[in-house]
Design a protein that fits this description.
The chain has 258 residues and is of the alpha/beta class. It has 2 domains: 199 residues, 2-enoyl-CoA Hydratase, Chain A, domain 1; 44 residues. Helix 1 links the parallel strand 3 and strand 4. Helix 4 packs across helix 5. The radius of gyration is 19 Å and the shape is globular. 35% of the residues are buried.
């Protein structure tokens, strides 16, 4: 494990899985600017590492992230920093490889932003999501108003964004905000198992489907489909033929993954 920003961010390398932990438990892993910029840097390093296939984002000691550091905000020193800004904003853009959120406890305000920035969310029974900054006048200029409605739909997103109410793990699973629901204390273990499953697949096909799914919002349907077809060609010409042959020969039958 390596420490970054004086221990505010921890990175653990588990074969093809990179585990990134926000380590500020004394403030429920609320992030100051240094922490956000460090998250940007460690995920950039993950993306550049050819051996790393899937990343997990989590928080230390039973909390995911309680948002921005309010003491720093109150001082005025971070008012012009945007989590989706171009100055090493961690949520500016999606990566070219999958990231899974392992959520225990609060993922609120800008912590919700980090959760919806990820591809998938594994939520423990203790998980709580919400735009808690609504109560003291905080906006969400960090990608949340773009990504949240794409995940849960416009009406549900507006309900969360305008009321600031809390959404527990069960409701999160019901509305599609959480993809997996696990017992308390099991989010990281379940996310790691899921990450290993994704890392074990032939990567070209999975990543081309992922890229098309993420980018299709930017195009009219016909153009999006053309781009989908073009992006799939390396996989069609690479693993798919040999993979189909393996299936014909008996591998992977009845839903078994190898």
């Amino acid at each position: 494990m390596t420490e970054h920003a004086n221990g505010k961010v921890l990175v653990d390398y588990d074969d093809p899985v990179t585990i990134v932990t926000i380590n500020r438990p004394q403030v429920k892993n609320a992030c100051d600017v240094e922490t956000v910029q460090t998250l940007h840097d460690v995920f950039a390093a993950f993306e550049a590492d050819d051996e790393a296939r899937v990343a997990i984002l989590t928080g230390a000691q039973g909390a995911f992230c309680a948002g921005a550091d309010l003491a720093e905000l109150a001082s005025g020193s971070s008012l012009h920093f945007c989590w989706a800004g171009k100055d090493r904003g961690a949520t500016r853009r999606r990566l070219s490889k999958p990231v899974i959120a392992a959520v225990e406890g609060h993922a609120v305000a800008a912590g919700l932003v980090l959760a919806v920035w990820c591809d998938l969310r594994v939520a423990a029974a203790t998980a709580v999501f919400g735009v808690f900054c609504r109560r003291f006048g905080g906006p969400m200029p960090n990608g949340c108003t773009v990504r949240l409605p794409r995940i849960v739909g416009e009406s549900r997103a507006l309900d969360m964004l305008m009321t600031g109410r809390s959404v527990d793990a069960n409701e999160a699973k019901l509305i599609g905000l959480a993809d997996r629901l696990v017992p308390a204390g099991q989010a990281l273990a379940a996310a790691t198992e899921l990450a290993r499953q994704l890392a074990g697949f032939p990567q070209t096909a999975m990543l081309s489907d992922r890229a098309s799914t993420i980018s299709q919002w930017d195009y009219e349907e016909e153009e999006a489909i053309d781009r989908e077809i073009a992006g799939a060609q390396p996989a069609m010409k690479g693993h798919f033929q040999s993979g189909a042959g393996s299936f014909v020969d008996g591998a992977g039958r009845h839903g078994a993954f190898e």
